[in-house]
Design brief:
Layout (H helix, E strand, L loop, with lengths): L47 H4 L2 H6 L10 H11 L12 H4 L36 E2 L5 E2 L6 H5 L8 H9 L4 H9 L6 H12 L8 H8 L6 H11 L5 H4 L10 E2 L7 H4 L5 H4 L8 E2 L21 H10 L30 H12 L17
Antiparallel strand pairs: 1-2, 3-4
Helix pairs in contact: 3-7, 3-8, 10-15, 14-15
The chain binds heme C (HEC) (2 copies).
The site of one heme C (HEC) has 26 residues, from α11 and α14.
Length: 374
């Protein structure tokens, strides 16, 4: 039997036949409470500073995202929070992606219908307009191609798409929602994916104390946050050279030296897909937006606190044979140089932690239009 957890690419997996879904009496399924007037998701936009940013313009030109309509994203909101999408009628996307935690769940590994922990840490979700590659190993292109995977994954929601379309078609509130979104009431996997991807594109995260600081010369920052900001952006730590720009992210994946040999430790990241030694332990350079509320950290959730993350970068980067050059003393040149030793002071460590907390969004985590309608 093929073990699901080590299947990198979906196409390469041999599937066990899915179990039949647990019965759900359509008349007893929960009713979403939606506003009388549809929320204008299609009018949500980014601030001028973002729209005019050249790096973001490049990232934002990704054409794979579906066009957002108000009715489409509204349907996506209902789907995202609906436990009927799981075989056992008790797991939704929001079981693992909780709004108050930046759409993560506070756990190193999560459990869905099977009770078997997910192989990797649940990712925080935001700013999909500017993201192309999905998952820690970037195996999927575009959020619209991502959203059906957790539904079918045996440890997450374990629902075949055939069974799902039949199930949703029979729940009274869905046909009208599909009709508003797509012109007729037919439920199809493509429409489910489109609606969900439209909703995910509304996860805008640009309202943090850091953003307020950008606009006000950081008059709102404490001395410790100011120190942390300097350390984050200085040429020695080079944090911002990978977690860069307004997203604090990179479209590229890097090896940041958590292990000498990732594959031997059980998770080779992108190396498992390419088979190249220089991809061993290469993972998505995730956004640091909302990082203060999206722990535990790294692809396996190994660090419980940001202080542990900072201590790791300061003192404990491992000598991986293809370590990124930005994490070496010189900061440039070949891969695999000896890791830098930052020897940060106590004040600098605390400052970095305090600075990272300024990236927490104050709107996204509580916006009603992103919240549970059930
Ligand atoms: C059982 C927990 C669980 C459930 C349920 C779940 N997810 Fe996830 N999600 C994860 C984990 C774990 C990852 C990272 C997996 C990996 O990289 O291999 C992830 C990754 C993602 C990503 C990639 C984010 C990025 O920045 O690359 C998106 C988008 C996402 N999930 C959306 C959803 C949607 C939509 C649903 C519901 C249809 C859902 N998830 C259901 C645990 C879950
Ligand atoms: C060479 C590029 C690079 C540099 C430089 C870098 N990082 Fe990272 N960072 C990464 C990658 C890649 C990951 C994901 C690694 C993984 O999970 O295996 C990551 C993960 C993180 C995470 C965890 C994110 C999460 O959601 O779990 C935090 C926090 C973080 N980095 C902060 C920093 C800080 C602070 C600095 C500077 C001291 C820094 N990084 C420097 C590439 C980099």
């Amino acid at each position: 039997m093929v073990v699901w957890g080590v299947c990198g690419m979906w196409a390469g997996c041999t599937k066990e036949p899915p179990l039949d879904p647990d019965p759900l009496d359509p008349a007893e399924s929960a009713q979403p409470v939606l506003p009388d007037e549809t929320f204008p998701y299609s009018e949500l936009t980014y601030p001028q500073t973002w729209l005019g940013d050249p790096a973001l313009q490049l990232a934002g030109s990704f054409s794979g995202n579906p066009q957002v309509t108000d009715a489409g994203a509204t349907l996506g909101r209902v789907l995202f929070y609906d436990v009927a999408l799981s075989r056992t009628n008790d797991v939704s996307c929001a079981t693992c992606h909780q709004q108050a935690l930046g759409f993560s769940d506070g756990l190193s590994q999560s459990t869905g219908v099977s009770g078997v922990p997910t192989r990797r840490n649940t990712m925080a979700l935001s700013n999909f307009r500017y993201q192309r590659r999905m998952f820690w190993d970037q195996r999927t292109n575009g959020v619209v191609n991502q959203v059906l995977q957790p539904i079918e994954h045996p440890d997450e929601m374990d629902m075949s798409l055939d069974a799902l379309t039949t199930k949703l078609q029979a729940i009274a509130h869905y046909p009208p929602l599909f009709e508003s979104a797509f012109g007729d009431s037919l439920v199809t996997p493509d429409r489910i994916a489109s609606a969900m991807a439209q909703f995910l594109q509304a996860f805008h995260s640009y309202s943090s104390r850091y953003d307020e600081g950008l606009a006000t010369g950081f008059a709102n920052f404490t001395p410790s946050e100011m120190l942390g900001k300097e350390v984050f952006f200085n040429g020695e730590t080079r944090c911002n050279q990978c977690h860069s720009g307004l997203l604090f992210q990179s479209g590229q994946a890097f090896i940041n030296g958590l292990e000498v040999d990732y594959e031997a430790q059980g998770d080779g990241g992108i190396g498992e897909l390419t088979g190249s030694a220089d991809d061993d332990g290469r993972f998505k350079t995730v956004s640091l937006r909302n990082i203060g509320i999206t722990g535990p950290f790294m692809h396996d959730g190994r660090f419980a606190t940001l202080r542990e993350v900072v201590d790791f970068y300061s003192d404990n980067i491992q000598p991986h044979p293809y370590l990124d050059e930005r994490l070496s003393e010189a900061g440039s040149g070949p891969l695999g140089q000896a890791p830098y030793q930052l020897n940060l002071t106590e004040e600098e460590r605390q400052g970095l932690v305090d600075f990272l907390h300024t990236l927490t969004d104050t709107v996204m985590v509580s916006a009603w239009w992103l919240s549970d309608p059930f």
